[in-house]
Design goal:
Blueprint lengths: L1 H7 L2 H26 L6 H26 L4 H30 L8 H55 L2 H17 L3 H20 L5 E3 H19 L3 E7 L7 E3 L4 H12 L6 E10 L2 E8 L7 H6 L3 H14 L4 E6 L5 E8 L5 H4 L1
Parallel strand pairs: 2-4
Antiparallel strand pairs: 1-3, 4-5, 5-7, 6-7
Helix pairs in contact: 2-3, 3-4, 4-5, 5-11, 6-7, 7-8, 8-9, 9-11
Length: 359
């Protein structure tokens, strides 16, 4: 199996292998048919000579086909047909000359004999041509498919990175504004703590690849770093409660998938109210799915579409990022709570990291 795979991956080796085996089989089959008619074993030399001629003619034919391969299709087809007819004439001539030299009673006496040998040589080289172009087109299609898949994967990765990094400037702008305000208010200790927390969070953000996934435990740890920064900004106005089941902590999730949702909740449910607000995060395993629910007790929203396409850019980006990563295997829903507030529910395929990798 390994030898076959190596052969298929090397076009030149594949050609020469098929070329040698094919023409050897042609010589053996022709000799076998002749012996079946009662011919002596010495005919093997004739068919070996004919097979060698076919080998040489088809090699020259291959050079011609390769020369016109990149021509426009009509020109390439016409040129290939001319090469094929020329090669057929050469192969027929060689066959007739060898036959006449090998068999005194086999000399051609009519045009129909030449036509028959021409037709048989044409059929032979036309079959060779069909196999050659079939393999070449098949390999080209495979290479194009691989190139398309590679380009799609690169575009997929670029899109994920764009969606992830599009969120960071908003958070960074807000945090730097808060640090500036603390410095102006002479709260240097609090400002210094916020700078340290911001440094740790940005280090995690830059080190994590948006294409790769992390465990929910790592995501919660990064979320706590982010919340630490925001709680320095809002103090007791921001109240957070987390409830993550132990069985869900090893589940794989996209890195920094929670931060834009929390940032959105803080913007709409906490910062705009004097009394602040509460954010609740739950995560659990439900069958083959990981369910993450985030709730706030803000005023709610009348039009989620406008919110996620306009002010709530984090919601739109998170929805699109999950769609790119999981397709139809994920669910992302938003709804208003009673008496007020918003609930965001995410369902992902439950894929746990191996314990050996988690260590």
């Amino acid at each position: 199996m390994r030898t076959l795979k190596s052969l298929l991956s090397n076009p030149s080796r594949l050609f020469w292998t098929l070329q040698i085996v094919g023409w050897c089989c042609y010589s053996i089959l022709g000799f076998s048919a002749k012996v079946g008619e009662g011919a002596p074993p010495s005919w093997i030399f004739f068919y070996l000579a004919v097979g060698a001629s076919g080998f040489a003619v088809s090699c020259l034919l291959r050079l011609g086909y390769r020369y016109v391969w990149n021509w426009p299709t009509p020109r390439m087809t016409l040129a290939a047909a001319c090469f094929l007819l020329l090669a057929t004439l050469v192969q027929m001539k060689v066959f007739v000359v060898l036959l006449a030299g090998f068999c005194d009673d086999c000399e051609m006496h009519s045009m129909f004999g030449y036509l028959w040998y021409f037709a048989s040589s044409l059929y032979l080289l036309l079959s060779w041509t069909g196999l050659y172009f079939g393999i070449k087109f098949s390999r080209q299609l495979r290479e194009q498919k691989e190139a398309a898949l590679k380009a799609q994967a690169m575009a997929h990765e670029a899109q994920l990175k764009m969606l992830r990094y599009q969120l960071n400037p908003h958070f960074l702008f807000n945090t730097l504004n808060a640090i500036s305000t603390l410095v102006l208010d002479h709260k240097n200790g609090t400002a210094n703590g916020m700078v340290g927390s911001l440094s740790a969070f940005l280090r995690y953000s830059l080190d994590s690849d948006p294409v790769q996934r992390v465990t929910l435990a790592q995501e919660i740890e990064a979320t706590n770093q982010y919340l630490g920064i925001e709680q320095l900004r809002f103090g007791e106005r921001l109240r957070v409660r987390m409830n993550v089941e132990p069985g869900a902590r090893d589940a794989l999730v996209p890195s920094l998938i929670l931060q834009p949702l929390i940032e959105n909740a803080i913007k709409y449910a906490v910062s705009r109210r004097e009394e602040g607000g509460s954010i609740e995060i739950e995560a659990k395993r439900s069958g083959d799915a990981l369910v993450i629910v985030m709730r706030d007790d803000g005023p709610g929203c009348k039009n989620f579409e406008n919110r996620s396409n306009g002010h709530g850019v984090g919601l739109a980006n998170t929805r699109e990022r999950l769609q790119v990563l999981y397709g139809n295997r994920q669910q992302f829903s938003l709804s208003n709570r009673e008496p007020h507030g918003v609930e965001i529910r995410i369902e992902l395929p439950f894929e746990a990291v191996a314990k050996s990798n988690a260590a």
